Amino acid sequence: MSIKFYAPLWGNTLPFKEFCKKVKEAGYDGVEMDLPLDEKEKEAVLNRLGEFDLELIAQYYQSFEADPSANLTAYNRYLEHLLAAKPVAVNCQTGKDYFSFNENQAHFSLAQKLSDTSGIPITHETHRGKCLYSAPIASTYFQQIPDLRICLDISHWCNVHESLLEDQKEAVDLALSRTDHIHSRVGFAEGPQVSDPRAPEWSDALQAHLGWWDRVVQWHRKQGTLLRITTEFGPFPYMPSLPHTQMPVANQWEINVYMLNLLKVRYTE
After folding, report:
1. The pTM is what?
2. Dmax over Cα atoms in the chain, in whole Å?
């Protein structure tokens, strides 16, 4: 097997060229990001990534439309836009938590068709507010859709279920077996992101997440397949901040690089 690591564009405030340089120097293989709809801007982004030999995981998070039919139409349009850029993969925050099973399944069917046609893998993220927002709901989709592959951001489930998922073992086991992409953010019972995974007060949460990720890595080693990991600690409001000043309590970039190096040592050295 092999593992590749990606930096999130989310939270970046640097000019894109400087960001890419920083990402490359930190030791990442690529960037996970959405793409501008303007074709010239999109081309400039792709050229810059190519200049620094950085891979692209294209990201869809824009599941804004409340009507399922309108949402599906927009989903199709944006996925075609992303796939045209020939990323190594696409990661989607698919559907809505309040859409019916059949309404969300239409999104999965469309994504599978587009993936088959393009040859580009598409994963679906376990994200609050989207179709895979909770462990038991996701388990239902896994049982009904055998080919469904996910981006595991299990920090969201910790928040949704207000626990480290001790009582969700069967659903978690199934999710781990469907994971091709990890967002290595650490969540806890009251939120999707601890303030700083380096702090001793978050040791239990960090160890729980490492245990889940270990099992995904073991599965891919057994299968001899590629695993992608994005170190996706985010900025405010995911990152706690001080009242009034809105100063973050920790440095997002430093935390993500810490996670990069921690996981590289754990899984590749």
Report:
1. 0.97
2. 50
